[in-house]
Predict the structure.
Amino acid sequence: MIRTYLLFLLVSFSLSLFCQEKTQIVLDSTAVYLYDSETSSWAYDGYNAYMYDNYGNQSENINYHRHPGTNELIGSWRYTYQYDARGNQTDAITYLWDQEIKDWVKKERCVQKYDVNWIKYETIKSEWNSETSGWVDKELHVFKSFDAGKTLVATVYHWEKLTNDWIEYSLSTTSYNTGGNPSLNIVDFWNPRSNNWASGWRYVYAYDDYGNQIEVMQSTWDAVNNNWLGNVYYRNTYDVNRNRTAFMSYSWNIETNAWVGNLLVDELYDEKDNRIEESYHNWKSGADNWENTWHYINTYNEHGNQLEWIQNSWDPESKTWKFSSKQLSFWSEKTFIITDTNTVTNISSDANAENISGESINDNFLVYPNPITDFATIKLPQEVDIKQIDIINIYGKTVRTISKVQSNILSIQKDNLPEGIYFIRIRAEETYLKKVIIM
């Protein structure tokens, strides 16, 4: 008898559906230091402060830096966020510090709208007009999904002051494979002369058997020869735990008719899959080899939270790494309102939604990194025979299905899923349920 593995994913760990509380470790602040080679010491340069609402959503992020002339701490930028009752981010405002008036000044705003299934369908970006003391629309993004979520169309409009209306700018069409990952993305641009869409960019994605993205080919449209011309190529490699170990980018050289290296990033992980080192290299055409540029060293606490990263720059004369800057992160425990930790309740009123309530929790598997923003890696016991994976929103509607699962370690891309609450249902021979936090 096939049972179910059910993961409870919080794509923004805020919930007001059930009035329970739980202590959560969150990032309080980060402090930045610059290395002074003359004194061989670190000089304090500024910090970031983070605030949260009652449900664990990040409500504010403020950055301060040290003024080079007066040596005082002054504001740089500030972000404020608002969310709906389901944890979807609905409003984000950017402020810049005005040193003359000693206060924050509004700069940009981003408003996001969602349908009843928590799928984002519209984003409006605007700029602050100090003369009128009001927001002026700048960009409109409209999202539409087709073929049961296998195709996503995003249309971008720019605000035209002369006509006082939105005009088309770009049209992005993304297709997804059976694993739920984007396989093809084509971006067209509006041509006002022909009054029609003109081909612009194309991205072709390739994955390994575990859902890891291994290749991306970026091409531009050649209107003269009416075909796609590859101009940028990306490649990723991974270890056995699905951690990315190398990222490489290349550009097409039309003179030599060959790919030329741009950037190489090497990544190293500890036994807990924390990324502890990153090395950046640029291609040096004269030497026909990769040249060191930056090196990062990361340290973590027992919970996997980053405590420190140190940035080193490469000195070509001494051929050694030298300190450049570092950041310290400070974490604390805070109590938030969360969902029921013992059962998952189906609150959907959709007649077509699926009832996924009543599953009990079992922690015999791993999801990392946590929190995450782009993708999640799921690691289950070797004896588990996975049949199918479904991503289900809080209303019980399946928004993505992964039917070809060939390993007990796999990656799931966030892609077009908005922030909110989701279930990942893994059909197998046993039943497990786990709640994780995804940003």
